Amino acid sequence: MQAIQSSLFGLLDFALYFAVSIILLLAFKVVYALITPHDEWKLVKDEQNTAAALGFMGAVIGFALALASAASNSESIVDFVIWGVVGLIAQCLAFAIVRFIFMPKIVQRINDNEISAGIVLGGISIAVGILNAACMTY
Q1: pLDDT of the chain along its 138 residues, tens only?
Q2: pTM for the full model?
Q3: How many domains is the chain built from?
Q4: Which domain holds residue 24?
């Protein structure tokens, strides 16, 4: 019985971190939509744009990887939120790097549903998320 009680003791912390993670994911969706000139949700939902889905889901996965590392390594919920915001900024920078350095026509290519552009954007976003997560193991 003691083992069960001890195990359930962390349930409140789990619920708090999980709820904050979901809130940060939603905040990421809003911020990412604001910095990208194309409307990912409209492209995916209304136009079934695969390139937009690949790019956006790569960004979400990259951000979730950073959030997972922040949750695992944070010392408090405030620490977690701070590092979650750092992860959000890193993902936004990843988009800027692709847009302004690697593929200046990425926005048009995503709008035109060029799958290769979505794969590049999603892949770079995931790579940045992995690097970001690894760097959060302070």
Answers
A1: 777 777 777 889 999 999 999 999 999 999 999 999 988 889 999 999 999 999 999 999 999 999 999 999 999 999 999 999 999 999 999 999 999 999 999 999 999 999 999 999 999 999 999 999 999 886
A2: 0.90
A3: 1
A4: 2-135
- Looking at this protein, which amino acid is placed at residue 67? L
CB-based contacts of 124: which residues, under 8 Å, 6+ apart?
58, 94, 97, 98, 102
Which whole-number Å values give the CA distances from 37 to 13, 105, 107, 116, 131, in the listed order? 37, 12, 7, 19, 25
User: What contacts 121, CB < 8 A, 6 or more positions away?
Assistant: 54, 55, 58, 59, 95, 98, 103, 106, 110
